[in-house]
Amino acid sequence: MSTFDDVRRIALGLPEAEERITWEVDVTFRVRDKIFAMGGPDGTHVSIKASPDRQAELVDLDPETFAPSAYVGRFGWVTVDLARVEPFLLEDLLRDAWRRTAPKKLAATLDGGA
């Protein structure tokens, strides 16, 4: 239902977000040099920063679409199967990840701090 191009469009539409190739293969999306999402342009999954509680809710909701991310799952990161996630949920996850990563004053500028 969603693609990596959707991830890129949503992520780069957030204030001060930038894309950077890391480890020679991963595309990372950052705000002020801190990663909030990563994946590969030809991949079918993306890892998105979330809280441990949100990660658990998503995995409980649909374990075929959501899983704890390798290495960083213990911090709440969730891996999302792009072919299975609804576009509105993908956008919500990316916006939330950006808010968790951006400095507080910058985060408050998104949607008037909502």
Net shape: globular
Helix proportion: 25-40%
Largest sheet, described in full?
6 strands, antiparallel
The whole-number mean of residue pLDDT values reads 93
Q: Could you give the order of the helices and strands?
A: HEEEEHEEHH
| Number of separate helices | 4
Q: Uncertain runs with pLDDT below 50, 5 residues or more?
A: none
Rg for CA atoms: 13 Å
Q: Which structural class should the secondary elements be placed in?
A: alpha+beta
User: How many angstroms separate the termini?
Assistant: 27 Å
Binned strand content:
25-35%
E-strand count: 6
Strand order of the largest sheet: 1-2-3-4-6-5
What report would you give on this structure?
The chain has 4 helices and 6 strands, in the order αββββαββαα. It is an alpha+beta fold. It has a 6-stranded antiparallel beta sheet with strand order 1-2-3-4-6-5. Helix 1 (4-12) crosses helix 3. The radius of gyration is 13 Å and the shape is globular.
Secondary structure topology:
Blueprint: H1 4-12, E1 17-22, E2 26-31, E3 34-39, E4 45-48, H2 52-61, E5 66-68, E6 78-81, H3 87-101, H4 104-107
Short description:
The chain has 114 residues and is of the alpha+beta class. The chain is built from four helices and six strands; from the N terminus they run H-E-E-E-E-H-E-E-H-H. Helix content is 33%, strand content 25%.
Characteristics:
114 residues; alpha+beta
